[in-house]
Amino acid sequence: MTSLLDMRIRAVVFDLDGTLVDSAPGLQTALNAVLEARGSPAVELADVESMIGDGIPGLINKAFSKNGRSLSKTELDAAAIQFHDIYADCSARETLLFPGARDCLKQLASLGVSLGLCTNKPQRSTEPLLDALKIDHYFSAVFGGDLLAGVRKPDPRHVLAVLGRLGIDAAEAVMVGDSPNDVHAGQGAGIPVIAVTYGYSLGPVEALGADYYIDNLTELAPLLWDL
After folding, report:
1. Which of 5, 32, 122, 123 could join 42 in a cystine, given CB atoms 3.0 to 4.6 angstroms apart?
2. Catalytic residue among 6, 15, 131, 136
3. Burial letters for 7-25: b for 16+ Cβ neighbours within 10 Å, e otherwise?
C-alpha cells in the first residue's frame, strides 16, 4: 500500500462549505429567518448556494442586496447575531457530508497526511459542526474566517496560518476547494489547488483556474500520489 514515504504531499488544506459539506439548507433556514424578521422576502436554495463563500456577514448582505436593501453596520451586526443563534440550532440537522468526504478523510489520515481546514465560516459555527458530523478528529488545524483579525480567504495568509499550525511547508501541501476564494488563497500561498466540480462556484468550474479538478473526494488520494 502506498505510504506517506511515497508521496511528496504531506498536508491537505480543505475548504468546508461546498467542498466537504453541503451546508446550504441550514444556511437557508437561518438566512430566511433573518430576512423574515426584517420584512424581506425569503431566498431560494439556489440563491443561497450562489451567495456562499464570503462568511456570514457577506451572506446576509448579499441576501438583502438581492431584495434591493442594504444594512447599516449596526443592522448587520444584529442580523448576524440572530443568524448565529438560529444556525447553531439547525446546522447539525441540515448539513450533510458530500459523497466520498468521510472516506477521503479516513484514507488520508491512514496515510499519515496532516489535514487542515481553512473556511470563511466563523469559528463558533465551524467547530460544533465538525463535531456533530464526527469528523473533527481528522483535523489538526481549524481556522475559521474570524480567527485571524482581518485575514480570511482569498487572503493567502489564511492558508499559510493553517500550514503554520500543521508545521508543513507550502512545497509539501495542496488546497482543496470549490470557489475563487479557495483558488486565489491557495495559489497565493504557493500551493497547488484542487477544485471539486460539485461545489457552489458560479459558472463553469473550469473557469476557476485551479491546478486540478476532481468529481468526487475519493479521487483525491490517488491524485496526490502522482503529484
Report:
1. 32
2. 15
3. bebbbbbbbbbbbbbbbbb
What span, in angstroms and rounded, lies between the C-alpha atoms of 118 and 99? Answer: 20
CATH architecture of 4-22+96-225: 3-Layer(aba) Sandwich (3.40)
State the CB neighbour count (10 A cutoff) for residue 2: 11
Question: Active-site residue 15, yes or no?
Answer: yes
Binned at pLDDT 50, 70 and 90, residue 6 comes out as low
In the structure grid, which three cell numbers stand for residue 211, read together?
A: 491546478
CATH superfamily label, 24-94: Putative phosphatase; domain 2 (1.10.150.240)
d(CA 16, CA 117): 7
What are the residue ranges spanned by the domains of the chain?
4-22+96-225, 24-94
> What would the pLDDT profile of 34-53 be if each residue is shown by its tens digit?
999 999 999 999 999 999 98
Residue 1, Cβ neighbours under 10 Å: how many?
5
d(CA 169, CA 178): 23
